[in-house]
Design a protein that fits this description.
Layout lengths: L3 H17 L20 H8 L3 H8 L7 H10 L4 H10 L10 H16 L6 E4 L5 E4 L1 H7 L12 H7 L1 H6 L3 H16 L6 H13 L4 H4 L10 E5 L7 E8 L8 E7 L2 H12 L17
Helix pairs in contact: 2-3, 2-4, 4-5, 7-13, 8-10, 8-11
């Protein structure tokens, strides 16, 4: 939760936005001349559904707001998405909840051109639950097309643990897979209690029971940059450097980018992406075969 210093910063942030608003901005009628700019505290309190004394203390940094109350105050102050994220951080909370389906669709549409700009580097966009929202042709050529995975299992953790195509291609897959799980626990926050998170864990339990001790572990870690080796059949080994970053439109989402570490790797990945069907062995469950 927020410290006294961040509580005062949050109060100053809310007060500044209150002073920027006019009564007409929130559907109120201005009557008597106002001695101070913007809305009165009692107006924001009323619009937020909280008491005047409590809202006054919030601006003074003397109380801590719950996530729900802070969201109500943010709506009353007409904060945009960036303002809400900043208020949540100052209050000590994780990012706002993952967008609904429409919001996730807008995010995927905005990020897809970025993913496609890396033709030889596998890249994927995941949401707070690590569900796949978008990927590029290089990702599909290397790991297999996510469209072939049932939608309820189209999740990065599930792919790492249970998708034999990925495990067959990725050398020494366990350290990376464990780091993905640790990062999820470190950043998931309220998502750990979401129904979708429980659903993903049930699928993992059913489809990869030998790794059951992983989801019972409580260790956390950041997803660190590293170099991994992949070897699609018929292509030869390729060293890829993993990096990750958060889209500015939704910092709870994550882009993972695997960049070839040398010229030979770039050439092999470019060839694999250009001819993704040339080396598919249906008998191997979608794994690529020499050809």
């Amino acid at each position: 939760m927020s410290t006294p210093a961040t509580g005062q910063e949050l109060g100053a942030f809310l007060r500044a936005h209150r002073e920027l608003l006019k009564p007409a901005d929130v559907g109120l009628t201005a009557t008597a001349r106002r001695r101070t700019p913007g809305l009165r505290r009692e107006e924001v309190a009323s619009l937020s559904g909280v008491g005047l004394a409590w809202y006054t203390w919030l601006e003074q940094g003397r109380v801590t707001a719950s996530r729900q109350v802070l969201e109500a105050v943010a709506r009353a102050l007409r904060l945009d998405a960036a303002g809400l994220r900043h208020a949540m951080r100052l209050a000590g909370y994780h990012e706002p909840a993952t967008p609904d389906g429409a919001g996730a669709g807008r995010l995927a549409a905005a990020v897809q051109p970025v993913l496609d700009s890396w033709p030889a580097s596998p890249a994927v966009l995941v949401d707070r639950h690590f569900d796949l929202l978008g990927w590029n042709a290089a990702w599909a050529a290397l790991w297999g097309a996510p469209e072939t995975v049932p939608a309820d299992r189209r999740n990065l953790m599930w792919l790492m643990a249970a998708d034999r195509r990925l495990r067959a291609v990725l050398h020494d897959w366990e350290p990376l897979a464990m780091n993905v799980f640790q990062h999820f626990r470190a950043q998931a926050g309220p998502a750990l209690a979401d129904p979708r998170t429980g659903e993903v864990y049930r699928h993992l339990d059913a489809d990869a029971p030998e790794l059951r001790h992983w989801w019972g572990c409580h260790s956390v870690a950041e997803l660190t940059a590293r170099t991994v080796t992949v070897e699609p059949a018929g292509v030869g080994p390729v060293r890829l450097t993993l990096s990750s970053f958060h889209p500015v439109d939704d910092p709870s989402a994550l882009v993972l980018l695997f960049t070839p570490a040398d010229a030979a790797g770039r050439e092999r990945m470019a060839d694999l992406t250009a001819h993704p069907l040339r080396a598919v062995d249906p008998a191997a469950g979608g794994r690529r075969a020499a050809g």
